Amino acid sequence: MRGSEVPAADTEATVAPDGAPGAAKRARRTRGQLGLNVVLQLVAMVAIGLLVYPEAATWVARIGHNSEISGYVNQVDATAPAERQRILDAAYAYNDQLEPGPLTDPYTSVNEDEAERSDLYLAYEEMLRVSGTDAIGTINYPRLDIGLPAYHGTSDEVISKGAGHMYGTSLPIGGPSTHSVLTAHSGLPHSKLFTELPKAKVGDTFWISVLGEDHHYRVEETETILPDDTESLEIREGEDWVTLFTCTPIGVNSHRFMVHAVRLPDSEAPQNETLGGDGVGLGFPWWAVWFVGGSGAVAWLLFAPPRKKR
Q: What is the pLDDT of residues 260-309, one digit of tens each?
């Protein structure tokens, strides 16, 4: 009996050392594979996020634009009619007394009055101001899906969040012998702004709303010019013009794409186009579907248990 027990003990002594290292190796391999899969999942999610980021950022930026437009419309509605008329009368007087000098391209240099915050520029910033908002109006270009608040000046901060009114040009309230100029960035990763403007066509209509008044314009001409060529921005006696412009080509920004539009009589203005307080539609967030769906597909490929062979 004792003789038979010795081999059994020897057997356990020899099997255990062989089995334990094998199980430990398998456990380490499993943990290593799991760690690698987690890293791959994170890398895939980052890659998918980078792909959908422009669409996601534009969608979020549009929420901000619509909120600003809605706030402006609400503040205008809350302003007494007599006060609105007083603000408009002051703006009309400003345009009548305006003596346009050499205009400064905002993408290459800053206007001297704006840079020095001169008394003239500070007075300009008080024009069209409504309590509770920094916006001075809104611009809506339906065919290009542009709906933005408009602000004083063309500082980088302004034209990165909406349309900036170029100081030295007529305020965007319409009227004979006026030429208002508005600009915004294009090609920004976080917002489209005027990215679609180079797709403008002669005959398009858009409108600018200021203090509850809508002014409709029809595109008469588009052109690509050098930054210092501002001849086309001059006031035409007795006429009402608006010019929209942005940098082109995107990423190079060596030229300016100009959209020149003339005021339409109220009788010719489109009757089915109205700017609601919520701005332009957001559209469905397909970017979220792509991100969640893509991330889920990668997770299934990496973490789904293997099928057992029959």
A: 999 999 877 776 554 444 455 555 565 566 667 777 776 777 667 766 66
Question: CA 177, CA 233: separation in Å to the nearest integer?
Answer: 12
What sign for the dihedral angle of Cα 223, 105, 120, 213?
Answer: positive
CA distances from 225 to 88, 207, 221 (A): 33, 24, 13
pLDDT tens sequence across 215-247: 999 999 999 999 989 889 999 999 999 999 999
**The token pair that represents 289 in the structure block:** 């579907």
**Alpha-carbon gap, residue 163 to 154, rounded angstroms:** 8
Q: What are the residues whose beta carbons fall under 8 Å from the beta carbon of 1, sequence distance 6 or more? A: none
Q: Which two tokens stand for residue 35?
A: 């760690």
Q: Which of 167, 188, 172, 95 is nearest to 140 (CA)?
A: 172
pLDDT of residue 143: 93
187 alpha carbon, distance to own chain's centre? 9
The secondary element (H helix, E strand) that includes residue 21 is: helix 2-78
